[in-house]
Design a protein that fits this description.
167 residues; mainly alpha; 3-stranded antiparallel sheet
């Protein structure tokens, strides 16, 4: 019996233990990857919050949001203002230059917006896949999404239809 107690693991037992360890490692890795992806999206939303704030300061000074042609770059570059009559109202720099999202894709700016309604603007990051209108897109309206993932208007978004926004 001493010989039997002294023997090691069989090859089959070792393979079972290795497979269990690999399976556990895969589960842990997938968990951490999804947390990392969510953190990147949260960082992008925070960057959009900063841009939102700068766009509001721009709107207060200029009595309008930037046009699509001006884009968000007008928040740091006065030379992009299309209407010379507006040059005297520009009080920037409203934000440090931010041309790309966390995945090194250009940030999409649309005004009037398409995602919520035409009285708003849209900021869109195409996410890690680099393609618009996919599940990994991040927008400035994400916090308004319901449980079904649909964007709902709660009426709190500044409207360009008001006298102060259209000037």
């Amino acid at each position: 019996m001493n010989q039997r107690n002294a023997r090691g693991f069989t090859l089959f037992e070792l393979l079972i233990v290795i497979s269990i360890l690999l399976a556990l490692g895969a589960i842990v890795t997938v968990s951490f990857l999804s947390v990392g992806d969510q953190a990147e999206a949260d960082i992008q939303r925070a960057q959009f919050d900063q841009i939102d704030s700068a766009l509001e300061r721009f709107r207060i000074d200029m009595k309008r949001y930037p046009t699509e042609d001006e884009g968000i770059a007008v928040l740091w570059d006065k030379e992009l203002i299309e209407d010379e009559a507006d040059l005297g109202r520009w009080r920037g720099i409203y934000i440090s230059p931010i041309a790309q999202d966390n995945w090194n894709h250009e940030i999409i700016y649309r005004y009037p917006g398409e995602l919520l309604d035409e009285s708003t603007y849209d900021l869109v990051s195409v996410g890690p896949d680099g393609e618009e209108n996919t599940e990994d897109d991040v927008t400035n309206h994400d916090r308004r999404k319901n449980a079904d993932g649909e964007i709902e208007s709660d009426g709190s978004f500044p409207s360009s239809g008001s006298d102060t926004a259209t000037g």
